[in-house]
Structure formats: structure tokens, C-alpha cells
Amino acid sequence: MTNPNNISLNISHALEFIDGHALNIPTLKILSEDGEILDGATAPELDKDTALRIYSTMRFIRLLDERMQAAQRQGRISFYMQCLGEEAAITASAAALKQEDMIMAQYREQAALHYRGFSLEQFMNQLFSNEKDLGKGRQMPVHYGSNELHYLTISSPLGTQIPQATGYAYGQKLKHIDAQSGELSSEIDNVTICYFGEGAASEGDFHAGLNMAAVHKAPVLFFARNNGYAISTPADEQFKGDGIASRGVGYGIKTIRVDGADTLAVYAATQKAREIAVTTGEPVLIESIAYRLGAHSTSDDPSGYRTKDEEAEFKSNCPVARFKAWLLKQGWLNEEEDEAQKDKIREEILAALKVAEKVQKPALEELVSDVYDTPIPALQKQYEELKEHIKQHPDAYPITAGRVK
Amino acid sequence: MAKMNMLHAINSALDITMAEHPQACIFGEDVGYFGGVFRATSGLQEKYGKHRVFNTPLTEQGILGFANGLAAFGAPALAEIQFADYIFPAFDQIVNESAKFRYRSGNEFNVGNLTIRTPYGGGIAGGLYHSQSPEAYFAHTPGLKLVVPRNPYQAKGLLRACIKDDNPVIFFEPKRLYRASTGEVPEGDYTIEIGKAEVVKEGKDVTVLAWGAQMEIIEQAAAKAEEAGISCEVIDLRSILPWDVETIAKSVTKTGRLVISHEAPITNGFGAEIAATIQKECFLHLESPIERVCGLDTPYPLALEKEYVPDALKVFAAIKKSVEF
Fold first, then answer.
1. Per-residue confidence (pLDDT) for residue A3, from 0 to 100
2. Rounded CA separation B34/B28 (Å)
């Protein structure tokens, strides 16, 4: 029977409570640590070009992260965040999407952006806040964004992109809804993927976003990166119950959990999730179980809250190495070429870094542009006063003084 | 022209918007079939369908998060927060997200299509949590625009301007006037420029300034003052952000005196910003200190509302004090 509470009542006479851990959601795994397809598993259809692009993206990001982490230590940039340990989860999920699908990320998903075509030079311009940065030098390093690549600019407040993804996806769906019936009249062209960590899932925005997506049927793929730590807070101090996936089930959202270090499992799950979203218009939740191998950010030191043994254990389960082993077995990759490529990329990164750090900072005008579509009168006045002040004291403002007209 | 109350005028502005843009959406708590607790959206779901006019779950941060995403996509997002008292769960989505979308992305993305409508203010025996005027919190946030109408004609023209404006706007609706204020309103489309104050009545002795529902109060006070032989220039600010410094300064330069009145608590209310700016702009023309007649620095009360509110008598007293200084 049903009632206005939208619940099918299943009457019982036994006084029984359901345990918070009663759900025991399985984890999709396709590829063994040695790069073999596991017995009973079915590999997704993945052509050679896509597979190699996924791999080269993971490898590029690993090399970029390594170099820029060092650059931060040298004091050349102020901050950095690595993707280390989650390269497969991010890259394979991005690869399963269409180029025009929207990506709303948290802050650690640079691999998805690179997969879309964000160039080495573009990464560097943002990291050095120079005048070529698309974000015009307003946010900390790693807050990338690109309209052309359908990658929403990162916002530091945690989880805010989650209900936004629901709204954006709802917009993507609108033109496919029949005005009379209010039902989906055709397959949806594009969907939105929303990445967030298991820590962000504690924010009110998580509840708001998932609940609204479920109720209003927005074609959004919620991709929870459960990597074990929210800065220093381990997952068992973050939430109870069966992971983030069990929450998806609670909201009435189709949910799957995947091994986040398994490129093929993530690719297969995301591909299927996208298919569900475009045909039904409904959201899907994917929980990726991985391990954040690096520090939360360059301002963090994991040695204070986890052991070397724990890190070593997860280091041995390297997502990049696992996928590489499969590619080698496929005969799509060979060691010599791979090594040569690595050296070449390292050189390119170093060269790009040296160029980007010499590009000048944004012009003074960028302080006041984009607050509104055009500066409001009060702001225009403040800008004129600031310019006059700088003209009178050029030595105190060396970055902009020479360029103020 | 047709005789409308403020709710009809707002409904008309929304109706024009919905007809104009096939992806415009109206959403909020109870705004669907029911038309919202004040019925501002009555009849729109029947006309435009459940997929474009819909009830949301009870989540203000969800409404604004959703609205930011929908507006970023490019669809006009017409979000309603049922009472301005309940806008605070959405504070982060408004001040950290809506307001900074364009700036933080270097104009790669924006939510210029976002309009937030919310009933504000007292006078309906709503007590603490149905009477607040939170405009000053948002006036401290670059990237937002804030608009408050005083009657049906203003409501429709200003709301249409907010919707067409390429920036996120909060439109505070004086709920006390929803049905109490009626007037002639064009049935077709028109807009009133955002950022411009209106001189409602010219005068020479003192400038009296307010916005929204408080306009009715200062007009009553000005009428009392006229009887006492004091000529008041009455101005409706209309837009709180950006606000029209030029019109106010011009008036105060002429009259030499300024009385500002708003419902929100006086400390750090928007009247403080006006007083600071006008004393700088008009220092040598001022004949008396700028007076503020505002709410007390207490939460909005229920039983002693009459004592709390900046009523016409209090405004009249301030006008006299200013003139007799």
C-alpha cells in the first residue's frame, strides 16, 4: 500500500531496528592489481586511442603534480594540491563523458581538466596568477576553470558546487521536456558531473543538492571521491554507515561504488551512469574508493596523522601502474617509449614553468572588472582614486605603476 | 493600465518573463500550484507547467545552490525565499557564490540570470521570524544588486529590470504592502532603471529618505511636517546596491538636512553607509547632523511592535529635531 508520505508500507509486528550499516554495497572491480581482467568481470569497450589518452593524462598529471609540489617548496608558487592516488578515478570518469558535458569539480580534479584539453601553459598561467590566467589572478593556485572546456571555475568553499550541479543539469534537461506532459521527450544531449570528497558530503549543500536532484530529476552524476581523509580527519570521524554510497540510496538515487584505483571499473561505471542520466533524466551517485596518497595540500603534513606503513600499503596499489600493466598486456604501450615520453614531459613542464613565472601580473584594471558586468559608480570612483594614488607613489606599487595610464 | 495590488504586479512581471524565455524557471517553497504563501506566483504553474514552476524541498541553501547552477547554465532563475528571515541558510550560496561567480572565474562564468525574490519587513504581526529586514548584510557584498519597491507600479518595473539585469539581484518585497498597496500598473512590459533614486516630493527644508514599506511612513511624517510649516523633500532610494549618491547629495546640498529611516536595526544598517557618504559629499552644506530613525538594536519583537518600529511620529520628531538644530 502507499500513502501521502510516498512510502510503500510493509507492515511488521516485530520490534526491529535497522542497523546503520545494514546496507553493504558491493564495490565494482574489473582489473586486478597486476593488470588482468578479473574472473567474472567484463571489461568496458575502450578503444586504444581513448585508453592511451587516459594513460597519458594520468602520467602527465603525476609529473605536473610532482614538479609543482616542488615549486611550492621552492617558494615559486604559494600553494598546490596533488591528485596523487586518485588519477584513475578522475581521468577515467572524465573520459567516459562527452566533451560538452559540464564538469563541476572540488579542487583536486586537474586530470579531468587536462583530459578536456587544458594545456600545460594554461595550468602554469593559473598557478602563477599571471595576466594570461583565465581567472585573472583572483584565486589561489589550482582554482582552474574554463568556459570553453565546460569546466566550472573552482570555488574554495566546500561542497557549494553540489546543488549548483543539480541546477545546471536541470537546465541541460529543460529543452528535452515536453511542455504539455512535463515528461522527458528525448535523450538529453549533455549532463553534469559533480566531483566532491567524502568530507564535503558532510556539508549541508550535499544534502540540498542530492535531495533536489532526486526530487526534480536532474541528470547529474555525483562523483564522491572517498579517499579516506578530509585534510587530517579520517573517514571514520567523518561519517557513519556504509560510506557515501548508502546516502545516495537514501535519497532515492541510483548508486554504485567502484574501486577508484581501477581505471576500467571507473570508466565502465561512469559510462553506464551517463547512459542512465541521458535516458531517464535522473541523477546517479558514484562512490569511488581510493586513497589520497599525497598531502591534502602543501599546507598539510600527513605524517602527523597517518603512518608510513599505511601510506606504503596504498602506494603499492598504484592506479597508474595498474592501468599501465593492462596497457602493456594489450600491447598498446611499451616501456622504452613510455620512459622517453616521461623525460620529454618533464622538460616541457620545467620550460613552461620558467616562461609562466616571468609573465607579468594582471593589470590594475582587473582589480575592479567582473565584480559586475560593468563597474558600478562607487567602484569606478574608488578605481580612479586608487589610480591617482598609485601615480603619486609609483615606487610603492611596482607591479602596476608602470602600466597605469 | 489596470488597477493592481503589489502581488498582481509581481505576478505580471513574472508572467512576462516566463513567456519571454522558454527556459525561465520559478521555484521555491510552495510556489507551485499553491502560488506561494502570499500567492505571488498564482496561476503560473498552470500556464507554464510543473517543470518550469515548481515547489522545492525545504532547503534555502538548496534553492540558491540550484539557482546558481541554473543561472550559470544560462536560464533565467527566479528563486523565491519564502520570508527574508529564512534567507540565512542560503547566505553562503549568495555571498560566496552568486556574488563572486563572475569575479572568481575572470568572467568565464556568471550568474547574471539570477533574481532572488523575498518578502521582507514587519507590520503583519509576524513577530521575530517573519518581520526582519536583512538588506544590510547583503549590501556589504560586492557583486550583488539589491532593489526594494514601494508600490505596485515600482514593483513590476523594477522586478523586470532586475530580471533583465546581467548581475544577480535580490528583490526585497515589502510584504506589508502586498495587498495594502494598489495602483494603476501597465499591463504590458516596462522597466525602471536600477540604481536610481526617485524624488517623490520636492521640498526645501529637509530631505527625508527611505525605501520599500518605510516610504509610506516617511510620507505620513512629511505630511505632518508640512502642517507644521516644514517643507520636506521625500526620496525613495529604490536601489540599495548600487545606490544613487548623486540624487541624494544634490537634494541634501539644497535642503542642508537629511533624515534617513529604515526598519532594520540602526547599528550598521544601510542608513549608516548613507550618512557616512553624505556627510563627506555635503559637509559644507549640512545645517544639522544627519538623523537616522530606525529599528532598535534588538531582534524584531511581537507584542511591543508599535514601540519598536520607526513610525511616522518618530520620523516627524526627527524632522523637527533636524530643522530646529
1. 66
2. 11
Are residues B228 and B320 in contact, defined by beta-carbon separation less than 8 angstroms?
A: yes
- ipTM of the complex as predicted: 0.96
Residue B121: which of B235, B261, B245 has the closest Cα? B261
Q: Are B118 and B87 in contact (CB under 8 A)?
A: yes
For residue B76, say if its preceding peptide bond is cis, omega within 30 degrees of 0: no
* pLDDT of amino acid A179: 84
* Annotation marks residue A257 as catalytic: no
Query: Is A144 within 8 Å of A153 (Cβ atoms)?
Result: yes
Which residue in A165, A174, A211 is closest to B75 by CB distance? A174
Active site annotation includes B108? no
CA distances from B259 to A403, B207, B275, B281 (A): 44, 6, 9, 16
Instruction: Fill in the DSSP letter of residue B184.
Output: E
Question: Chain B residues with CB inside 8 Å of A136's CB?
Answer: 106-107
Provide the phi-psi class of A88: left if phi over 0, else alpha when psi is between -120 and 50, else beta: alpha
pLDDT in tens, B185-199: 999 999 999 999 999
Question: Nearest CA of chain B to the CA of A36: how many Å?
Answer: 41
Cell 537629511 belongs to which residue? B258
DSSP assignments along B98-146, one per residue: GGGHHHHTTTSS--TTEEEEEEE-S-SS--GGG----HHHHHTSTT-EE
Most B CBs within 10 A among A118, A174, A189, A383, hence the mutation to make, goes to A174
**CA–CA gap between residue A152 and residue A209 (Å, rounded):** 16
Q: Which residues contact A262 (CB under 8 A, 6 or more apart)?
A: A28, A29, A30, A31, A88, A319, A322
Whole-angstrom distance, CA of residue A202 vs CA of residue A230: 10
Distance, in Å, from the CA atom of B325 to the CA atom of B320, rounded to the nearest integer, reads 8
Contact B87, A147 (CB under 8 A): no
Q: Cβ of B267 under 8 Å from any chain A Cβ?
A: no
What is the full DSSP assignment across A56-123? HHHHHHHHHHHHHHHHHHTTSSS-----TT-HHHHHHHHHTS-TTSEEE--SS-HHHHHHHT--HHHH
| B69 → closest Cβ in A168, A177, A215 | A168
How far CA B3 is from CA of A391, B152, B153, in Å, comes to: 57, 9, 10
Could you give the 3-state DSSP secondary structure of residue A20? coil
Long-range CB contacts for residues A62-69, cutoff 8 Å, separation at least 24? A62/A87, A62/A320, A63/A342, A63/A345, A63/A346, A63/A349, A64/A110, A64/A114, A64/A120, A64/A123, A64/A349, A65/A110, A65/A294, A67/A346, A67/A349, A67/A350, A67/A353, A68/A127, A68/A141, A68/A353, A69/A294, A69/A298
Whether B45 and chain A come into contact, CB under 8 Å, resolves to: no
What pLDDT, on a 0 to 100 scale, did the predictor assign at position A1? 46
Cβ–Cβ below 8 Å for A145 and B103: no
Is B162 an 8 Å CB contact of chain A? no
CA B129 to chain centre: 18
Q: Are B51 and A153 within 8 A, CB to CB? A: no
pLDDT < 50 stretches in chain B? none
Question: Which residue, among B73, B117, B69, B57, has the nearest Cα to B93 in the 3D structure?
Answer: B69
User: Is B57 in contact with A157 (Cβ distance < 8 A)?
Assistant: no
Which stretches in chain A have pLDDT values below 70? Answer: 1-3
Q: From the candidates A138, A305, A389, A393, which is the catalytic residue?
A: A305
The string of DSSP letters for B26-91 reads EEETT-STT--TT-TTTTHHHHH-TTTEEE--S-HHHHHHHHHHHHHHTS-EEEE-S-GGG-GGGH
Distance from CA of B37 to the nearest CA of A (A): 21
Which residues on B lie below 8 Å from A369 (Cβ)? 107
The half-sphere exposure of A249 on its side-chain side, counting CA atoms within 13 A, is: 16
Contact residues, chain A, for B100 at CB < 8 Å: 155
